[in-house]
Amino acid sequence: MMEEDMENGRSYQERPRTFSTVRSKSSIPLVFRLLMRINPRTLIILSLLVFTGVLYVGASTSPIVVFVFCICTLSLFFSLYLTKWVLAKDEGPPEMSEISDAIRDGAEGFFRTQYGTISKMACILAFVILGIYLFRTATPQQEASGLGRATSAYITVASFLLGALCSGIAGFVGMWVSVRANVRVSSAARRSAREALQIAVRAGGFSAIVVVCMAVFGVALLYSTFYVWLGVDSPGSMKVADLPLLLVGYGFGASFVALFAQLGGGIYTKAADVGADLVGKVEQGIPEDDPRNPAVIADLVGDNVGDCAARGADLFESIAAEIISAMILGGTMAQRCKIEDPSGFILFPLVVHSFDLVVSSVGILSIRGTRDSSLISPIEDPMAIMQKGYSVTIVLAVLTFGVSTRWLLYTEQAPSAWLNFALCGLVGIITAYTFVWISKYYTDYKHEPVRLLALSSSTGHGTNIIAGVSLGMESTALPVLVISVAIISAYWLGQTSGLVDESGNPTGGLFGTAVATMGMLSTAGYVLTMDMFGPIADNAGGIVEMSQQPESVREITDVLDAVGNTTKATTKGFAIGSAALASFLLFSAYMDEVASFAQLPFKEVDIAVPEIFVGGLLGSMLIFLFSAWACSAVGKTAQEVVNEVRRQFIERPGIMDYKEKPDYGRCVAIVASASLREMIRPGALAIISPMAVGVIFRILGHSTGQPLLGAKVVASMLMFATVAGILMALFLNTAGGAWDNAKKYIETGALGGKGSESHKAAVTGDTVGDPFKDTAGPSLHVLIKMLATITLVMAPIFL
Hints:
single chain, mainly alpha, 78% helix, 0% strand, globular, ion transport, transmembrane, transport, transmembrane helix, PPase-energised_H-pump
């Protein structure tokens, strides 16, 4: 074939490019394949029947639940509108479509394999949970309500599996839209920067709305189903305030899948990225996403499985964990204050996130295209446009949050309490906005920190690394101060709300912190939209480069890509802040559950006790060891990619002259198999460590007459792991994002531009930061929340 082309005077560069498929069979999940085979009319009738059944269950529970179901249903219709709008856009010339197809095949193939592995591990863990709950002792509340050990065990396992399934679907939705939107953004960039931005935002918005909707709908459906099935609040049955504790398994299942999705996807995307950059940019001097680079398809596939699928599961888990922990604390507080109808305090988180769907939808629609689509305006700042949309979302979130608190948190016992809690929500919203601003300041090359980092590249690779590490360390200060002020302010507002227990002691402090967490996540839909925008823009730039579009088109996608790096960094900062607050809530719920099981007071953890101090050390060590193994996994896999890319350049010298075609599939196969293999060790460490520590110190405690020692050591481990994990995640995410954008800044022409010595040093910094910001950092804030949920679920084995 090649000889014929050369005889006809046509080179590989001029020949239409085709990319071999890396998928062996259909990657669409079985559930979706079965639904596609059903007659449309039959499917509509079945959907109406299911919806009617759901509304009936909701109506049997509370009108509030019906409201939540209706908002979620309307949001799903809105997401379908966004899908139709995005898919109606053209895919550009054939060479763009061919590249996009190769990316889609690789992403869907890896997704199927990865989630097949995760599902097997989830089933094994489900049997472990079942065994623990079948042989544990029941709490007095469960005995009084007639909820036996077997029923409790099956409920927890069912919740765990449902949470894992929904988290997996959230990841699939994130990946599904990104691999179809990337080529449409590339095509739109040939006409208008604003149109390309709008497509990327709406594609990300589809994923965000579905993820938030599933989290809210899943918890609401589980809650209402258990309410009806167990006959809650009827004579001799469970009290409604105790019901949220049965939902903990749902949060654990979501955390479990999110952790392995983040680990596997992060290892995949960064190993391919590092391998492609080190050999392509540094050694061969070719541009990023050049079609001559054998690892370029693997790199573009990684953007989808690491940044889209994993982040979808991550944000799903964040919202689910926050909702459940707030429901638990709301029910506990209402019970202590003897509030007649505690349903408002329990269901408040569901209503807040229902309004989140509404305000985020408005924010997404506020970003519009230009009237004259023929105008290309790269001068227009995409970050400023997205910030305007975020500002619209925040203003609406403040209004709807105030309405929600007055509607659900008003009580005759403390008529002004709702206002205090509304202020708690305002604290959370301000915290979220501040986190976004801080992350933007430290990672956007329009600001001084990244420009100073880029300047350090002019004196060599070493000074670039030193500057990046110091920037990451410095960036932990402001977020920690903000979190500290938010926790104390919200706690104080809750304590002074006027709600007191039977003894007259204020009881609203912890719930105030929970409300602040809800406020922080009340714009989660729009924040996730900004996050999904990043990898879609990155993929679009790769498709433009590989299909060799004009430089003006690449300039537009480069601007969008740089903004995408900033939005990804801000989302990670947002996620870390919410993880800190959610972990604090889950920690409080864990202490309450231990006290309930043991029938002993458990209100504080004394780190002056040697065993408890050791538990804290082990928690801090866990963070560093987990991060080390995650980064090491990227390094090992990247070495394999580097060796493979070098081999192809040596054995196929015609690649550089476009006379031979790289074997893209080989690099895809290497990173796919290695990432699945390498994700097991850090993931297993995260799951086994708290259980092993709790059981060992439980045995030690019983032998020394300290019945709560195991639970206290695990509590200390969780506290220290949360603190160390927040700091480490902030450092890794910010340093990695800053290194990446310092490189982007030089590529705009500063300090010598592409190919200069400064650029080579910046590429080295970027490759060092890759596993920081996209593997270890994002995995850490998932780990923090998973530790909190696993200790809550496994509390009985520590006693």
